[in-house]
Protein: 5-formyltetrahydrofolate cyclo-ligase
Amino acid sequence: MPTNKKELRLHYKNLRKELTNDNIEEKSLAVANNLIQLPIWDKTYYHVFLPIEEHKEVNTEYVLHLLSGKDKEIVVSRSDFETRGMSHFLLTDNTRIKKNEYNIPEPVNGLPVPSATIDVVFVPLLAFDLSGNRVGYGKGFYDKFLTECKPETIKIGLSFFEAENEIEDVFESDVKLDYCVTPDKVYEF
Structure:
């Protein structure tokens, strides 16, 4: 079994390729249903990633429905590939979403929200381990963003697959998750 980030990235990208659209919808709904169990619903600002369909990411539409049903403030991001930074905006009925050159859906406009205001972040990932370490796409956007959040910000990974025992090449600078939610289970770290 793969144990380093590079191998895990490849392994999970291949596993995702095998998922059908029906699998993705079914598993994404199960992830959203499992989120309900978490003790996070007394917060105000929730950051949600908008999925890259081509990468077969967890469809966060169900998470968005959950948050709007609970009348929460929803925050979405725009990525700057030169600085590897992200700017965050309040998602409202007036927010225009457009795919960037990497097919990432992003807000075109909106009210800016500082990272330090965000209470809960739903984190995209390819793999994670039993200690709460995660493997993303390797660009470092989320590690940088999560260090800009306040220390008590709750970090929740969303994954179609279960945890690996251990990711070998974890760095000091890697930001750990507090939870990871899969279609079958909720992991708490």
Summary: The chain has a mean pLDDT of 95. The radius of gyration is 15 Å.
